[in-house]
Design brief:
The complex is a heterodimer of chains A (115) and B (114).
Chain A: E1 5-7, E2 10-13, E3 19-24, E4 31-37, E5 44-50, E6 53-56, E7 65-68, E8 75-79, E9 88-95, E10 105-106, E11 110-114
Parallel strand pairs in A: 2-11
Antiparallel strand pairs in A: 1-3, 3-8, 4-5, 4-9, 5-6, 7-8, 9-10, 9-11
Chain B: E1 3-6, E2 11-14, E3 19-21, E4 23-26, E5 32-38, E6 44-50, E7 56-59, E8 62-65, E9 75-77, E10 86-96, E11 99-104, E12 108-113
Parallel strand pairs in B: 2-12
Antiparallel strand pairs in B: 1-4, 3-9, 5-6, 5-10, 7-8, 8-9, 10-11, 10-12
The chains are: A mainly beta (115), B mainly beta (114).
Amino acid sequence: EAGVAQSPRYKIIEKRQSVAFWCNPISGHATLYWYQQILGQGPKLLIQFQNNGVVDDSQLPKDRFSAERLKGVDSTLKIQPAKLEDSAVYLCASSDRGIGSYEQYFGPGTRLTVT
Amino acid sequence: GNSVTQMEGPVTLSEEAFLTINCTYTATGYPSLFWYVQYPGEGLQLLLKATKADDKGSNKGFEATYRKETTSFHLEKGSVQVSDSAVYFCALTFSSGGYQKVTFGTGTKLQVIP
């Protein structure tokens, strides 16, 4: 079974530029998550999708961040314009809405550096 | 609200030492509890889990027991190896509005020296 795919793995941009990250979850996983992980901290949930609908975006800075999940499969997270404090690793995860626990499967992340 | 508190790191141990990383939680209802591990340069991966009180999760020599009376889920390993050096995250999932939500701790860095 293929894991969660993310691209690019690394990105360096200047502040005020825009950037987009892509995530392809594990096939069949209904729930998709985007996290921001600042160095030395735990993952912070930015947005959670159930199929192609948003169920939690309470911590997404909506003035600059946007995300979509077309057709309930892969997803794109965009930042426009970027700020220095957006430098972080952006993690995508997916989970299967099965019975029992809801363990998440993470991609390798995209490391963003804003200069 | 629902939250997870982990012991601060870094934790530095010699190879073959005993490991404990403390994790306590605050939650309403009956959350599931997880330990995730993040090796350098990689994403998080599930290490072990427990879905109800008194359950013990185990994997790769690591163990954690879901203790409802002390609201804890401490991670233990009897003999650590250099390859266990990583950041360990405690997490819980809970139901909210018909969906599963997740909360992570801040992570504890483990460094094992030969």
